């Protein structure tokens, strides 16, 4: 991400009123803003000038936001905040499945959206500037390699989104400890506010990929009224330091 110029945000929405209001608030906050009214225009603009972050409406004419997100990610990693007029869990899951970093339901506060944009960009910058990653972690057939950002289970590579990987890494680094949803949102997403159901949905999707039986999770357990715990009987060990 650029460090000496304002972060560039691409806003993709077919509603000109929404686009103009969001662009105005982002501009006031010091961001460089590009606008696109549909999927093809967004992909064309992103190919011409790569954005640092994309604010992307889910319901676009012709090519929906999910397909736009997939195609953007095919050209390289870029943070994405999804916008939608629909707030049901199915849509949230679809957005998270393609790797959206945040999910905002219309109507929304433009000021809150600006804060979320800044938060996602800070997290993205911190990841890029992070010191060399720790050795791989292992737990009951599960291996996490922070340096290569690869996760495997039983020898097979897991297709994890950026946030799913970060969430799993945080939980594995704190085995046996109950991690609250607010803590996870702060440490994994870098948010001091937001919809805690985002954490819940990510955990559900992560369980589907790492648990033998997601309905009876052994690795990522629910601590009722608090959050989640990486199973104490599945505590990870650093590579070369023993086996769990």
UniProtKB/TrEMBL annotation:
InterPro entries in the record: CheY-like_superfamily, OmpR/PhoB-type_DNA-bd, Sig_transdc_resp-reg_C-effctor, Sig_transdc_resp-reg_receiver, WalR-like, WH-like_DNA-bd_sf
Top-level taxonomic group: Bacteria
Domain OmpR/PhoB-type: 134-232
Location of the Response regulatory domain: 8-121
Pfam families: Response_reg, Trans_reg_C
Keyword DNA repair: no
Ranges in coiled-coil conformation: none
4-aspartylphosphate found at: 57
Tagged with keyword Transcription regulation: yes
PROSITE patterns per record: OMPR_PHOB (PS51755), RESPONSE_REGULATORY (PS50110)
Stored SMART domains: REC (SM00448), Trans_reg_C (SM00862)
DNA-binding segment(s): 134-232
Alphabetized UniProt keyword annotations: DNA-binding, Phosphoprotein, Transcription, Transcription regulation
PANTHER family: DNA-BINDING DUAL TRANSCRIPTIONAL REGULATOR OMPR, REGULATOR OF RPOS
Name the UniProt record assigns to this protein: Response regulator transcription factor
């Amino acid at each position: 991400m650029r460090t000496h110029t304002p972060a560039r945000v691409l806003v993709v929405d077919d509603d000109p009123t929404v686009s103009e209001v969001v662009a105005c608030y982002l501009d006031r906050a010091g961001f460089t803003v590009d606008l696109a009214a549909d999927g093809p225009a967004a992909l064309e603009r992103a190919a011409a000038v790569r954005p640092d972050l994309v604010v992307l409406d889910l319901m676009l004419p012709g090519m929906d936001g999910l397909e736009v997100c997939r195609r953007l990610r095919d050209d390289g990693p870029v943070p994405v905040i999804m916008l939608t007029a629909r707030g049901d869990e199915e849509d949230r899951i679809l957005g998270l499945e393609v790797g959206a970093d945040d999910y905002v339901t219309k109507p929304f506060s433009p000021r809150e959206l600006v804060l979320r944009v800044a938060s996602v960009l800070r997290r993205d910058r911190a990841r890029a500037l992070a010191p060399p990653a720790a050795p791989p972690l292992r737990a009951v057939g599960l291996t996490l390699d922070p340096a290569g950002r690869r996760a495997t289970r039983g020898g097979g590579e897991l297709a994890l989104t950026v946030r799913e990987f970060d969430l799993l890494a945080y939980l594995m680094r704190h085995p046996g400890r109950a991690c609250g949803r607010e803590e996870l949102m702060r440490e994994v997403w870098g948010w001091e506010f937001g919809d805690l159901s985002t954490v819940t949905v990510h955990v559900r999707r992560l369980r589907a990929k790492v648990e033998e039986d997601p309905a009876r999770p052994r690795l990522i357990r629910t601590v009722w009224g608090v959050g989640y715990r990486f199973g104490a009987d599945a505590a990870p060990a650093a590579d070369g330091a023993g086996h769990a």
